[in-house]
Structure formats: structure tokens, C-alpha cells
Design goal:
It is found in: Plastid, Chloroplast membrane. By secondary structure, the chain is of the alpha+beta class. 66% of the residues lie in helices and 12% in strands.
Length: 392
């Protein structure tokens, strides 16, 4: 097959074209879109096809159709260059992944802010953190059980070893969840989250002295602003309460052990982040329920509920429901994020989440703060960010 070009003119014999389709060369041979096509004869007796040119073409295949008067001929299949071609699928995939992670982060932060607002509203009107924590876990567990039963979500495939490895994680998660709720029932939401910004310091100290791990010097140096900022914020807190302070500190320690147990026990497990947190909620609910009954009990709950209804009205029901649902959703999205990003990126996202919670709670609840208190919070959050960078 011969292609000739007008302005400028060129020709390609079918045999030459077939050679260019050899494995060693680029399979996409550039020709041109034809406005007209005619069959001519060359001096040597070979047939040629004259093609006038307007748009570039790319040859996709060269096929031998058979013989005509004892002479074989080939047909070239081509497509126009102005048709959409995915020249860089890797870049498009990376861009889609960034959009997905950005959506996860935005959803995670928004859900967390909403949870903390409703959680504080409930605790102000109904100061029973053990029951509040139990209702959060119960609501999330019920939501996932219904999702599995109706096949909205695929149920995880688990075995005894899975639940055995999950048990210490669930114990630490239960302690951390209750301790944080107790803290928020006694102090401002912003103060609880400022203290919880010190979690990296607990992580490094526990890993160093209990597990024997060592870290680069920048990691240890990043603990100085974390500890100093938290201390400064605590000293200058106008509504300081020791139970609230200790609850936040215990929560930090418990979540560090939760992360350690999770890394050790879940290696090689093929459970998605969403289902993993659902299983964690179910086991934590089973652990927490008897302790909640023992510490507070139905009589205290009934009396407190009557008072909350008289003070707030039916809105307290909506607050409890919203607090419980949003608690499960924000944790579920955070675990789903872990499936898509590195622990470092997750740590940075967690730091930014605390900033959004601190600022929003101060605005919504009109929390009185002093400039020194704001400075301490800023130093602690900055230290957390530096810790994330040093761990890279």
C-alpha cells in the first residue's frame, strides 16, 4: 500500500509499511486523514493508493487480506489523531487518588467537628460519660450489623485468630474513648483536644522505654514544643479541672497502646478499614457495657434523663442520636483513610483535624481563652506537625 502526500508529497509502499510495523519500531505510524483516495499503477506494475492529507492518522494494524490476481495486498487500519487518546493513564490515576484522599480528609474533619459539638451539648445537659460512650459504640455497631444483613456493605471474613488479635486493641480503644468523653464532660472541648495534641509524645516515650525503639534526634526535639505547649495551655486554662486533664492524658496513653496492638495484631489481615472499625466497635461495646452499668447504673441514668428532658426538651433526643451517629461515621472515615494513605499523611491530617475542632468549639461555645492559652495551643499543634515531619 502506498500513501502519497500533497503539500508536501511523500509515498510509502505496502512492503515498507509492513516493515515499519515490526516489533522493534513504534507501532503507531503517523499517516494522514484522507479527503480522497485513488488507485494508481507505478512504472514497476505495483498498485498504489494516493491519499490526500488533512489530519494526522495513526496506523493501528496492517492485515494481509489475500491475493488478487496472484498478488497479495494489505489493508492498513488507522484512527484520527484528534480522537481522545489517554496518553498518561498513570497521571490521571494519581490525580483521581488525590481527589479521593482530599474528599476523605474533608469528610473526616467535618464529621469530627459535628460530633464534638453534639457530644459537648449532650454532656452539658446529661453528664453521664459512661452511658454516652456506650451509646456511641452501640449505634455504630447497630448501623454496621444492618449494613451487613442487608448487604449494603460486604461482611468481613473473620476467624478466631482475628478476634483474638482484636481484643487488646478493643480494650485500649474502649479506655481511650471513655477517658476522652470523661474529659469533655469536665472541661472545654478545646482544652481536651489541646491536651490530646500531646499524643505523639506518649507514642515516642512508650515506644522508647517499653518497646526499645529508637528514633532520630529531630523526633525527640519535636517533643519539646509539644510538651511545652500542652503545659502552657494547661496552666493558663481558665476552667482547669484535674479530672478533665487526667481523662485527656489517659486517652492519649490508651490510644498509643491501641495503635501498637493494632500494628502487631493485624499484620496480614485482609479486612477493610471500614469493617475493621466496625468489628472494633462491636467488641468495645461488649467490653464497655458492664463497666458503664457498674460505674453509673440505670437509676442515675433515669434521673439524669428526666432532668435533661425538663431542661432541654425533646431536642436532647436528637442531640444524643446525632452524637452517636457522627461518632461512628467520623471514626469509620478515618479508618477508611488509612487504607489509602501512609501513616505519616494520616498523622498530619489528624493534626489539622484538632485545629479545626479547637477553633470551631471556641467559636460555637464562646469558650473564654487568654492570649497565653492560645499561644500554648499553637505551640503544641506546631510541635505535633514537626513530629510528623521528623518521622518521615
Amino acid at each position: 500500500m502506498i500513501c502519497s502526500v500533497r503539500q508536501p508529497s511523500t509515498a510509502l509502499a505496502a512492503s515498507d509499511l509492513a516493515k515499519r510495523r515490526s516489533p522493534g519500531l513504534n507501532p503507531r505510524l503517523s499517516l494522514f486523514r484522507s479527503e480522497s483516495c485513488s488507485l494508481n499503477s507505478n512504472d514497476d506494475g505495483r498498485k498504489s493508493v494516493v491519499v490526500s492529507i488533512r489530519k494526522p492518522l495513526y496506523v493501528s494494524s496492517v492485515e494481509k487480506l489475500g491475493a488478487r490476481r496472484g498478488e497479495g495486498f494489505r489493508v492498513c487500519k488507522a484512527y484520527e489523531a484528534d480522537q481522545p487518546i489517554d496518553a498518561n493513564p498513570e497521571a490521571r490515576s494519581a490525580a483521581a487518588q488525590k481527589v479521593k484522599i482530599g474528599f476523605y480528609f474533608a469528610t473526616w474533619w467535618a464529621l469530627n467537628v459535628v460530633f464534638n459539638i453534639y457530644n459537648k451539648k449532650v454532656l452539658n445537659a446529661f453528664p453521664y460519660p459512661w452511658l454516652t460512650s456506650t451509646l456511641s459504640l452501640a449505634t455504630g455497631s447497630l448501623m454496621m450489623l444492618i449494613s451487613w444483613a442487608t448487604r449494603i456493605a460486604e461482611a468481613p471474613k473473620t476467624d478466631f485468630d482475628f478476634w483474638k488479635a482484636l481484643f487488646p486493641v478493643a480494650v485500649a480503644h474502649t479506655i481511650g474513648h471513655v477517658a476522652a468523653t470523661v474529659s469533655m464532660s469536665k472541661v472545654a472541648v478545646s482544652f481536651t483536644h489541646i491536651i490530646k495534641s500531646g499524643e505523639p509524645a506518649f507514642s515516642v516515650l512508650v515506644s522508647r522505654f517499653l518497646l526499645g525503639e529508637t528514633f532520630p534526634m529531630p523526633v525527640y526535639l519535636s517533643l519539646v514544643p509539644i510538651i511545652g505547649g500542652c503545659a502552657l495551655a494547661a496552666v493558663t486554662e481558665l476552667n482547669f479541672n484535674m479530672i478533665g486533664f487526667m481523662g485527656a492524658m489517659i486517652s492519649n496513653l490508651a490510644f498509643v497502646f491501641r495503635n501498637i496492638f493494632s500494628k502487631r495484631g493485624m499484620k496480614g489481615k485482609s479486612v477493610s478499614g471500614m469493617n475493621y472499625y466496625a468489628c472494633l466497635s462491636i467488641m468495645s461495646l461488649l467490653i464497655l457495657t458492664p463497666f458503664a452499668i457498674a460505674v453509673e447504673g440505670p437509676q442515675m441514668w433515669a434521673a439524669g434523663w428526666e432532668k435533661a428532658l425538663s431542661d432541654i426538651g425533646p431536642n436532647i433526643i436528637w442531640w444524643v442520636a446525632a452524637q452517636s451517629v457522627f461518632y461512628h461515621l467520623y471514626n469509620q472515615v478515618s479508618y477508611m483513610s488509612l487504607d489509602e494513605i501512609s501513616p505519616l499523611t494520616f498523622s498530619i491530617g489528624n493534626t489539622m483535624k484538632r485545629i479545626s475542632v479547637i477553633v470551631s468549639s471556641i467559636i460555637i461555645f464562646h469558650t473564654p481563652v487568654q492570649p497565653v492559652n492560645i499561644l500554648g495551643a499553637a505551640i503544641a499543634v506546631l510541635g505535633t506537625f514537626l513530629y510528623s515531619q521528623a518521622k518521615q
